[in-house]
Amino acid sequence: MSSTKVLPEIEKYRKAGYDIDPLFVNRWSPRSFTDKEVPEDVLFSVFEAARWAPSSLNIQPWRFILARTNEDLEKFRSFILPGNRTWADKAPVLTLIISKKTDDKVGENAPHAFDTGAAWGFLALQASLKGLATHPMGGFDKEKAREVLNIPEDYAIHAVVAIGYQGEKTDLPENLQEREQPSPRRPLKETIYEGSF
Amino acid sequence: MSSTKVLPEIEKYRKAGYDIDPLFVNRWSPRSFTDKEVPEDVLFSVFEAARWAPSSLNIQPWRFILARTNEDLEKFRSFILPGNRTWADKAPVLTLIISKKTDDKVGENAPHAFDTGAAWGFLALQASLKGLATHPMGGFDKEKAREVLNIPEDYAIHAVVAIGYQGEKTDLPENLQEREQPSPRRPLKETIYEGSF
Fold first, then answer.
1. In angstroms, what separates the C-alpha of A100 from chain B's closest C-alpha?
2. Most B CBs within 10 Å: which of A3, A18, A100, as the mutation test of the B interface?
3. Do B16 and A52 touch (CB under 8 A)?
4. Which residues contact B144 (CB under 8 A, 6 or more apart)?
5. Superfamily of domain B30-168
6. Mean pLDDT score, A143-156
7. Nearest to B31 by CA among B174, B166, B138
8. DSSP states along A95-161
9. How far is CA B37 from CA A132, A133, B29, B42, in A?
10. Given A72, A120, A121, which is nearest B195 (Cβ)?
11. Is B114–A119 a contact, with Cβ atoms under 8 angstroms apart?
12. Across the interface, which of B44, B116, B125 has its CB nearest the CB of A114?
């Protein structure tokens, strides 16, 4: 099921410096979604992958609020910023990723955001392997999301992710068409420090 | 290169509830490492995968401090807590994952920990696909790490990860042998909220 090769539309934009599984470069964050429905078993496989992410003391601080009915999608749209709504309104599924900041075992769970990021990474890769596109957004009103979705203060709010099948670039508003391509990364040597900072 | 099936030693402990790529359950965090050296191209493929993680505005806040010489490993051992040193001292590679809390584009980069967690998730999966074990630790003295490794205040300190080839369970101290198995996860239905919290 997993990727066996780098997709042709990716090869133009991304070149791995070391031998890695193609799944890591094949995943990117397009903005154009079709209105094709995501079957429930496919959608839940995405969260199932996140479930198996590692976390400090296996606390599993991640939680996902899921919107896939018109009513729930409208609730989400009430706190997504207009710039993102121009494309995200087409996505058939939205999910808000949150994390519990405390735990009975440890009190304050310092790595809750870091661990939840790992779960998000797993989710994004499994989605890509199932042929789904995911696009995470920071552009939403977090306090409004907390209010609309009734999120307790003890949970941190991270990202809204649009999930669905990728659409055509030409279906996007013109100003977004030129951004509709996989993004590059800085060289690895600027990220790794040998021995000390 | 990626996983084609769930490994027999995993099947005993983990069962996915939805159809996911086996790579997500095959990855776990053993404590027993052999002293077999990790070839440089294999080691760097692990960081290369992390490089392609998604991040807010493509800021890529993650950084990795790498220890693979005796001198550098000793520096790391100076801040790892004794309980972890009983097993982590055998790992041929240690890396400290940190993240830059600010960015020229945005000032304070709120999702730095979350985004760096995604990079850690990518790293852990690529390691597993290359036959490497990774074990992340929170059990170390962060302030001492900051001092020993000369880490600026503007960087958050997340986890030390032991990297190497998995050893035999019987090579561990007796009290750790019983914990040397893949951990379970809570049911997905306790993690997903439909529509609102």
1. 11
2. A18
3. yes
4. B78, B79
5. NADH Oxidase (3.40.109.10)
6. 98
7. B166
8. EEEEEESEETTTEE-TTHHHHHHHHHHHHHHHHHHTT-EEEEE--B-HHHHHHHTT--TTEEEEEEE
9. 38, 38, 18, 10
10. A72
11. no
12. B116
Whether residues A49 and B191 touch (CB distance < 8 A) is answered with no
pLDDT of residue B159: 98
Cβ-based contacts of B58 with chain A (< 8 Å):
183, 185
Q: Residue A135 has which token pair?
A: 């696009």
Closest CA relative to residue A101, chosen from A109, A91, A93: A109
Residues 6+ apart with CB under 8 A from B87: B31, B32, B33, B135, B162, B172, B173, B176
Contact criterion met (CB < 8 Å) for B196 and A149: yes
Give the DSSP H/E element, type plus range, for residue B76.
helix B70-77
Q: For residue B62, give every residue at least 6 positions away whose Cβ sits within 8 Å of its Cβ, in sequence order, or none.
A: A191, B50, B53, B55, B97, B98, B99, B115, B116, B119, B120
Read off the pLDDT of residues B144-189 as tens digits, 9 standing for 90 and up. 999 999 999 999 999 999 999 999 999 999 999 999 999 999 999 9
CA distance B17 to B192: 14
CATH number for the domain formed by residue range(s) A29-168? 3.40.109.10
Distance from CA of A9 to the nearest CA of B (A): 16
How far apart are the C-alpha atoms of A15 and A50, rounded to whole Å? 26
Give the span between the Cα atoms of B106 and B61, in whole angstroms: 12
As given in the structure block, the two tokens for residue B11 are 């099947």
Choose the mutation target among A5, A13, A21, A134 for the interface with B, i.e. most B CBs under 10 Å.
Answer: A21
Q: Which residues of chain B have pLDDT under 50?
A: 1
Q: Which residue has the tokens 């004794």?
A: B82
CA–CA separation, A31 and A161 (whole Å): 11
pLDDT confidence tier of residue A1, bands split at 50, 70 and 90 = very low
| 8 Å CB contact between A79 and A144 | yes
d(CA B52, CA B73): 27
The strand pair at B155-164 and A192-194 is best described as unpaired
